[in-house]
Amino acid sequence: MLSVNRNRPTVVPPPSPVATPPTPPATPSTDPSPTGPTHLGYSKDDVFEAASNGADDLAKASSYEEPLDISGLDLNNPEVIQDLAETFGVEHVNLQKRSNDSEFDGALVGVDKAIKMGDLQGMRDLSALKPGDLSPFEPKNWRDKKNELIIQVNGINTDLSQQKQALQATADATGASVIGIHNATDGFAGDLMQSVGDKLNTGKNLAVDSMRDIVLGELRAGKKVHLMAHSQGGLITSRALGEVAEQLKKENKSDLMGQIKVETFGAASGRYPDGPQYVHYINESDPVSNLFGVEGSTSFMNNPGKDVLGHEARIIKFKEKSLIAAHNYNDVYMKHREDFNAAYGGVSNRFVVQDPSLYKLD
């Protein structure tokens, strides 16, 4: 069965040559700094989590007394499924695969329609989104609507209809127009295994491909990009922006990364490529971000991301509810969401440059 110990003990150093009684474990540390072993070969310049050392190394990088044995999960074992449900507080009915959602994996989602990835085959470099491509979700009860388009990507265990509810909640919370990139659900267990691949930067994820191409298209058209990601959506965003950064570097346009704003909510990624402006929301009662997020116990070589001027990401914490209820996007995270510019500029002595191209730095 899956065994997770949420307390993170401080690693006890090896004994000195002189025999001494073993030192008892120290009080669990709350230091969010990276603790992954250096022998894994990860570079501080890595864009995301390790790409080639596999799930075993991710388990070893965790300092749990009983590691989360990701590679050994038998998702056909009812006892494993039950333990997953107990660990995350998920209803058993939501653990099962919903195959009717798979066809919308990576689709662009608007009020009127969803453009499937299959409809975009052969279009490796998409042109910028046009207002007529999709009708976005618009905010209700906003007198002064913002002239901005936000692209949101959902997390695990969320089908298309549920994401549409989240897109409306996002529009209502931000006052902006919102479209989605759909991360199709394969059931909780299947989504978890895909998340492992995302965290290790391995395997295919159509939502990653869709976000990469859309972001590149927008930037090449001279537009700014505002992304919002929940749960596994943070992993998708991390991978996609890493690929965007690599492509822009080849084009000698790395400065365009500074035109991206990113907000994550209970995200499952600990690393993000530098360049964009980041605001990360963490519910300290949320088991997902506590395990896998920018300050997560199983995240190694964490990098919440720095903007083009070297400013650190803004991390906003709060505490509400427990277990999977604490992970709720619409009713929990959106309630605590702040205006992006106010949140990002809320760090003491921070000088925020919204458009770095307007300033000449000596």
Compile the SSE list and pairings.
Elements: H1 54-61, H2 78-88, E1 108-109, E2 114-115, E3 149-153, H3 160-174, E4 177-181, H4 187-199, H5 206-220, E5 225-230, H6 232-250, E6 260-265, E7 277-283, H7 287-292, E8 314-318, H8 329-336, H9 340-344
Parallel strand pairs: 3-4, 3-5, 5-6, 6-7, 7-8
Antiparallel strand pairs: 1-2, 1-4
If you had to describe this structure to a student in words, what would you say it looks like?
By secondary structure, the chain is an alpha/beta fold. It has a single domain, classed as Rossmann fold (3-Layer(aba) Sandwich). It has nine helices and eight strands. The protein has an eight-stranded mixed β-sheet, with helices on both faces. Helix 5 packs across helix 6 (232-250). The radius of gyration is 21 Å and the shape is globular.
